[in-house]
Amino acid sequence: MAAYDAIATAYQDSKQLPFRKHIERHTLFGALGDIRGLRVLDLACGEGFYTRLLKMAGAAEVTGVDISEEMVRLAERQEREHPLGCRYACADVADYQPVGAVDLVTAVYLLHYAGSGAKLLRLLEVCHGALRPGGRLVGFNDNVLDPPRGTVSWSKYGIVKTGPAVPRAGAPIRYRITNEDGASFEFDNYYESPETYAQAFREAGFRDFRWLGVSLDPAERGNPFWDDFLKNPPVIAFSATR
Predict the structure, then answer these.
(1) pLDDT tens digits, residue range 183-214?
(2) How far apart are CA 35 and CA 229, in angstroms?
(3) CB contact at 8 A, 132 and 242
(4) Looking at the DSSP assignment, which residues form a beta bridge with residue 177?
């Protein structure tokens, strides 16, 4: 995807924003639990940030898939420079055909790019088809439980979101991310209602679909800096079981 090719390096740098470590990463790995020995498919892997962390957490095999050639190039460069055994593929997840079943699929900021209920269902069918029976899908998403109405700022965390006055299916949600060096970049994802998500998970064959919210790293608890984020989180985690 050309839009992400253009912002790949800035997007990679955004992984150093404090909310990524103390909320996003903490929440994700708390939801994952012990992944030692598991086969993992990391969809919308970007430049391989979580792909590598999953491998370092003990996963036996991890394959990252992303639509952006530049993101995959950055991921493969890191693998060459610091080999962990991660593999990567450049593909639209909606068209991806996994080889063999995995124990875990991660989808960190994938589903909100669907743009329609039909595409959302297709993405979830790919996730479901990749998993062994009993395998899990865990990920992060735009917080569709509390979509922005107009512009809402979490600027001290590096995030500004802009959405329509009245949320509607397929409406773009514009993110502007500002890194710690002051560099900013923007991208769109697309709103679908919580009911549409729940229906798509059911139709794809998943059970136990849940929105998980977010949680804060214990090392940061008591720090009032995080109060606004936790009170009104711009993103949300989820899980489901095949």
Answers:
(1) 999 999 999 999 999 999 999 999 999 999 99
(2) 28
(3) yes
(4) 159, 185
